[in-house]
Amino acid sequence: MTWMLAFSAPASASVQPTGELTFAALSGKYEQDALLVKGVFVNMSDVKINKVEKFKLIVKDAAGNELATREWDNDAFLIGLSLEPGQSQKWDVMLPGAVQGADLKSLDVTYQMTCTTEKWDGRGEGVHIFIDKRKLNPEVAPFIKDGSMLVPLRSTLEALGAKVEWNPETQTVKATKGSDVMTFKIGQKSSTINGQKIQFGVPAQIVDGSSFIPLRDASEALGCALFVRMHNAKSMTIAIVDKQ
Fold it and tell me: Which of 79, 91, 141, 220 is the most exposed place for a label (fewest CB within 10 A)?
């Protein structure tokens, strides 16, 4: 199967994919006269991606100014790209001759690609959560409350690469991931990340003896990008990618 796709997504936001294979910019920086874009391919479909044969990338800044464009045809990395549904693969892209001096805090990528796919029967009902290429298998089922997906607290934070400390007396959680430190209290929306106050959409909470945390708030606070796709009323895929 071969198809073409054009898609645009800001690097700084969570992404609601519209096609089988999504590419998103995670960050960008200048290296001499080139622009280095750290990006990621994410398969949010119901098919397996076997390879990307052709790829064209256009990068713009937040104001819509074109910074660079490049095309690949039968590139070794892209030909070797194989992703089952929910899996992701990072890709660092060097764009020579890029426009210099742009604000790279938010990048907009537009792309076209030709892919080959094959049928895949591995998805069942329920919420399927992936962190990079690893599927998260929570000990208790996630659930949605007030529009937020709540997931088991400790196992999810540890899967995101954080060290978790729990104070039972104050019911306070401290999650440390590299240089990032997030603290919050069960039952409260208010949280801090590196000393700066943020607000969860819904508070972390204890349900039937298990502690839960809002997935989007926690993952984005710890420097991850979140990709979400509803396949039908009974099946959803969530992919989380560390921006580092």
Answer: 141
The rounded distance, in Å, linking the Cα atoms of 88 and 208 is 33
Question: Largest alpha-carbon pair distance within the chain?
Answer: 59
Residue 91, token pair as written in the block: 């890709």
Question: What single DSSP character describes residue 182?
Answer: E
- The confidence band for 39, taking pLDDT boundaries of 50, 70 and 90, is very high
Residues 144, 127 contacting (CB under 8 angstroms): no
124 is written with which tokens? 């069942």
- Give residue-wise pLDDT tens across range 180-201: 999 999 999 999 999 999 999 9
Q: What's the token pair of residue 202?
A: 């819904």
Residue 75: Cβ-neighbour burial (10 angstroms; 0-12, 13-18, 19+): middle
Beta pairing class for 148-152 and 210-214: antiparallel
pLDDT tens figures, 110-122:
999 999 999 888 7
- Strand ordering across the sheet containing 210-214: 143-145, 148-152, 210-214, 205-207
How many helices and strands (H and E) does the chain possess? Answer: 3, 20
The C-alpha angle with vertex 187 and arms to 181 and 189, in degrees rounded to 5, equals 60
| Amino acid in position 118 | E
Tokens of 157: 């934070």
